[in-house]
Specification:
Strand order of the largest sheet: 6-8-5-9-7-10-11
Structural class: alpha+beta
Bound molecules: magnesium ion
Shape: globular
Helix content: 25-40%
Order of helices and strands: HEHEHEEEHHEHEHHEHEEE
Strand content: 15-25%
Radius of gyration: 20 Å
Number of helices: 9
Number of strands: 11
């Protein structure tokens, strides 16, 4: 695929029709069926900031572009419906790159029944920049928000933390179905997806809710990758420090009343692990509790890729 025209006919051949979209690709706008309100999120990935194209294949970048947006909808327990995609392509080989990006994201779109409603493509002298805006239906019980944690709530996480440095930040499974199932069956108070590290994303929930938390560091589910990383001779962090601070886990962090959280664990409603890692406190500090019960402050730092740290 060498030109914009060829790319557009490739898209028309490969982007399937979808019941949410009234028109096939090709008009000035898309017409997407939504009910009363749409949950909307957008994310941009920039070469040199979020990925290096000599290290990561365009297919994986395309998949990740959709997956990060799916993870944001999962954080609010919304069901994804339709996406629009904007690409700024490098002049050399740009359109074949675009095809590979789509080849990476189309299977994930199919998996979560996301319509590709439309998009825009430009060629320029700069690096690859890709952006996707995703619409979703709010959960019938209401959208989950960062705001809403109250004292006494248990703090829960899905999966295990810190696999990102072994490539999981590219190939992770967004917790769309898990969020739906938990919101369907349980009374959840607050939620967020872990993108910048457990400690920092928890502190965002606390700030929005005007509360504090104690994390039982012994209970934090640490991935194999974090253990491996910490065992490397030149690594100065413990597995726990990786799990608390490393970004791009894309797991859910939730709060729920303590008895509800216990019921969730007893029911095992998910195929991935679900772990209680601490509790919400009335004050506004973030603290950690060790195995001996000692409580010390926990720094809310992590991998702040959004602020260029
Ligand atoms: Mg998020």
């Amino acid at each position: 695929v060498q030109s914009e025209l060829e790319f557009i006919s490739w898209l028309q051949e490969h982007v399937p029709p979808h019941p949410r979209c009234e028109l096939p690709l090709g008009d000035d706008c898309a017409i997407v069926h939504v009910e009363n309100s749409a949950v909307v999120t957008t994310d941009m990935l920039v070469e040199g900031v979020h990925f290096l194209s000599n290290e990561v294949s365009p297919r994986r970048i395309g998949r990740k572009l959709l997956a990060v947006n799916l993870s944001d909808l999962a954080a609010m327990a919304a069901r994804p419906t339709a996406a629009v995609i904007s690409l700024a392509l490098p002049r050399k080989g740009g359109y074949s790159l675009a095809v590979e990006l789509y080849e990476g994201l189309l299977p994930l779109a199919e998996r979560y029944h996301v319509a590709i409603a439309g998009g825009d493509t430009n060629v320029w002298d700069g690096p690859l920049v890709v952006s996707l805006t995703l619409l979703g239906d709010p959960h019938p019980r209401g959208s989950l928000r960062r705001h809403g944690a109250v004292e006494g709530d248990s703090i829960l996480v899905t999966g295990t933390l810190c696999g990102s440095l072994r490539g999981r930040h590219l190939d992770f499974e967004p917790r769309v179905d898990e969020a739906q199932r938990l919101r369907d069956q349980y009374n959840l108070h607050a939620g967020i997806d872990i993108t910048d590290g457990l400690a920092i994303d928890l502190s965002r929930v606390l700030a929005a809710s005007g509360r504090g938390a104690i994390v039982d560091v012994d209970l934090v589910p640490i991935s194999e990758a974090a253990l491996e990383l910490a065992h490397r001779a030149n690594d100065r962090k413990s597995p726990l420090q990786h799990a608390l601070g490393d970004g791009e886990d894309f797991e859910l962090l939730l709060t729920a009343p303590q008895d509800e959280a216990r019921r969730m664990l007893a029911d095992t409603p998910l195929e991935v692990p679900l772990t209680i890692i601490g509790e919400i406190t009335p004050d506004d500090g973030l603290r950690q509790r060790d195995r001996q019960g000692r409580i010390t402050p926990l720094a809310a730092d992590g991998y702040l890729h959004r602020t260029n740290k």
